[in-house]
Amino acid sequence: MAQSISVRASTFIVRELVGEILYFPVWWYTAGTKEIWTALVRQWLGLSERLGLRLLLQSMGKPMYGDYTRTGRIISFFFRIFLVAIRFVRVAGWTLISILLFVIWLVAPIAVLALLLRQLIPA
Fold first, then answer.
1. Where do the structural domains in the chain lie, given as residue ranges?
2. Predicted local confidence at residue 15, as pLDDT
């Protein structure tokens, strides 16, 4: 006996919905976590590249603006130390924010489920 289109369609929709709900935690803690981690690392590397920390550290002993006098070398050395410190603080701050975002990503579904169960099952 043939099923009607509406019965088959509703069966398909319910099956897909249940399948997606059951697959969600698996995706969140496997592929989703990998994507988030990759995006955060890519952003961190981009920030460090934009700030030019590696280039700044490589040119630490060279004078700025072609000023080869002793005073120019001393001023440029201390100015570069100042720039490295400021930029390092900025990268360290972004690193802490990235770690916090990653931890929130890992804990969010568990927290939402715990809060939902707390509302549904009174203590």
1. 29-120
2. 86
Q: What is the pTM of this model?
A: 0.74
Asked if 91 and 53 count as a contact pair (C-beta separation under 8 A), the reply is yes
pLDDT in tens, 96-116: 999 999 999 999 999 999 999
Contact 85, 56 (CB under 8 A): no
How far is C-alpha 94 from the geometric centre of its chain's CA atoms?
Answer: 9
| Other Cβ atoms within 10 Å of 29 Cβ, number | 13
d(CA 107, CA 43): 21
Helices of type H across 1-69: 5-29, 31-51, 53-58
Say how far apart CA 60 and CA 73 lie, in whole Å.
Answer: 10
